[in-house]
């Protein structure tokens, strides 16, 4: 049974969360580098890397993945200032997305050598966490062929809508970045971008689908439970301290 250490960072500036992830990733890379330099055989079973799961939300921000396209940001710097939205080019995969209040952002920093050394499988596992959690609320979610993230009515032309965006970075099998789940998100901020670079699809939130505001602390607890199931791990967290 793997152990994952959980932290709820609350609302935190995007750059601060990014810097923290980089620090945790670097710590693991240093451990791996030292380990493999002293071993006669390549094995990971006793590799003492540490797994983390961070939850947070961010002030209004648009982030662009390393393969993204600037034209998918539909406003200029002046309009960004008027909207009080910041902008970052990042080192994750994917195109452009929005983070803001009412959204649960999850950053798993995992050494996949202890899970599965298959980045595609890792992404499918993250999607499965969301699909199972949403099912607890009666929301039927799934995948859209050729795209990452979690979708509703993915196979219905004109109705497909994304509820959870995903984009990750992986270095020597250690992950960072992750997912952004729209819970009580103000969806108007997606009007100023082409979300994930997909022009003919829309976005949604749990609040919009259910018709009422959703308890975000409850969602966090359910996400942790589903992550434990899918990743076959124990997540150490003082649940009563969830923000």
Highlighted features:
disordered C terminus, 243 residues, 5 helices, BirA Bifunctional Protein, domain 2, 11 strands, alpha/beta
Structure summarized in a few sentences:
This protein has 243 residues and is α/β, with parallel strands linked by helices. Helix content is 28%, strand content 27%.
Topology (elements, then pairings):
Elements: E1 2-11, H1 14-37, E2 51-57, E3 61-64, H2 77-83, E4 86-89, E5 96-99, E6 103-109, H3 119-135, E7 150-152, E8 161-171, E9 174-182, E10 202-203, H4 206-210, H5 216-231, E11 233-236
Parallel strand pairs: 1-2, 1-11, 3-4, 8-10
Antiparallel strand pairs: 2-6, 3-5, 6-9, 7-8, 8-9
Helix pairs in contact: 3-5
Structural notes for this entry:
With 243 residues, the protein is of the alpha/beta class. The protein has one domain (2-241): 2-Layer Sandwich (BirA Bifunctional Protein, domain 2), CATH 3.30.930. The protein is 28% helix and 27% strand. It is built from five helices and eleven strands. The protein has helices at 14-37, 77-83, 119-135, 206-210, 216-231, and strands at 2-11, 51-57, 61-64, 86-89, 96-99, 103-109, 150-152, 161-171, 174-182, 202-203, 233-236. β7 and β8 form a beta hairpin. α3 (119-135) crosses α5 (216-231). It is globular and about 55 Å long. The two termini are 27 Å apart.
């Amino acid at each position: 049974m793997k152990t994952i250490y959980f932290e709820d960072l609350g609302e935190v500036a995007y750059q601060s969360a990014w810097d923290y992830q980089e620090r945790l990733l670097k710590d693991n890379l240093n451990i791996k580098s030292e380990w493999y330099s002293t071993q006669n055989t390549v094995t990971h079973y006793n590799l003492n890397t540490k797994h983390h799961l961070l939850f947070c939300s961010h002030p209004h921000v648009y982030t662009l993945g390393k393969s993204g396209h600037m034209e998918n940001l539909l406003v200029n710097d002046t309009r960004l200032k008027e909207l009080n939205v910041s902008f970052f080019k990042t080192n994750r995969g994917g195109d452009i997305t929005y983070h803001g209040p009412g959204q649960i952002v999850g950053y798993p920093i995992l050494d996949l050598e202890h899970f599965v050394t298959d980045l595609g499988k890792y992404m499918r596992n993250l999607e499965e966490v969301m699909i199972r959690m949403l099912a607890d609320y009666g929301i039927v979610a799934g995948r859209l062929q050729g795209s990452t993230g979690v979708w509703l009515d993915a196979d219905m032309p004109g109705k497909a809508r994304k509820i959870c965006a995903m984009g990750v970075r992986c270095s020597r099998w250690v992950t960072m970045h992750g997912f952004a789940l729209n819970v009580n998100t103000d969806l108007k901020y997606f009007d100023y971008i082409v979300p994930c670079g997909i022009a003919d699809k829309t976005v949604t939130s749990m609040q919009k689908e259910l018709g009422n505001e959703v308890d975000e602390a409850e969602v966090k607890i359910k996400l942790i439970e589903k992550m434990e199931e899918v990743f076959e791990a124990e997540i150490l967290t003082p649940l009563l301290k969830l923000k």
